[in-house]
Every structure is written in structure tokens, then in C-alpha cells.
Amino acid sequence: MRTYIPLIALLVILAGAAYGAHWSCTTTEDISWSVRKITWSWISNATGEVDAQTTAYFSGAPLGFIAEPAGGVSAPSADYDISITDENEYDLLQSSGVDMSAATSVYIFDATLTPISNDRLTLHIRAAGNANSGTVVLYLR
Predict the structure, then answer these.
(1) What is the pTM (predicted TM-score) of this model?
(2) Residue 14 CB neighbours (<10 A)
């Protein structure tokens, strides 16, 4: 029997650091069997940035990372950047999220990702353009 425990579904709308701009991000943290799935659905602020931290702490080895840009007028700017950092600001993606495609989804395998131990994770989006959006998914074991 499959056990599914949703840990948190959180809608965060906070003031951006620059010029009173706003970004928003819905973070969903799920545990299914031994795999954890963290999904960030984001909308950038006026400076093209998002910073959203998980409420739960995670340990394990990343299995994969998916970046899905929105389509049409909501697509992020070309060559936008994604990083996911632990509490020590170490990038789990090891710069694999730099210069992301604004038109197609990207999947990065676990060989290039860094394990974590009892850390909250923070999604950072940079250079995405004003009010653009996408989804980032991280799988951990």
C-alpha cells in the first residue's frame, strides 16, 4: 500500500527587496515512499527574482531536477538562472541551473547534484524578467 503524506503546501507572497517589488511562490513538499518531491511554482518580481525557502528540513541525495518555464507571455527571459541552496548557501545544482532555456523544460540527472543533510532549501531565480513564471521540481532520496 502506498503511503502519501503531504508535509506542506504553502503560498508565500512577500515584499521583494528592491523597489517594493513582489514575487510569489507556492512550495509543495511531499514524501512518497523513500522519495521526497519538492515543487516550487514561482512568479518573479519586477527585478526578475524569486527567493523561497522550504519550511521542512531535508536530508538525502538528489535524484533529479526539473525546470519547466511557463509558456507564452509568462515565459521567463532567455538564459535565466536557477539555484537551490542549503542553509550554508551551497548550490545543490553546482551551477547546472545557469542560463536555463525559456522555451523548453530541462531535466538534470543526479550525477551533477550535491547531497544534503538536515537543511532547509531555498530556491533562487535570477534574471527571469518582470512577472514571469515557471515550475521547479527537485526529487530527493
Answers:
(1) 0.79
(2) 12
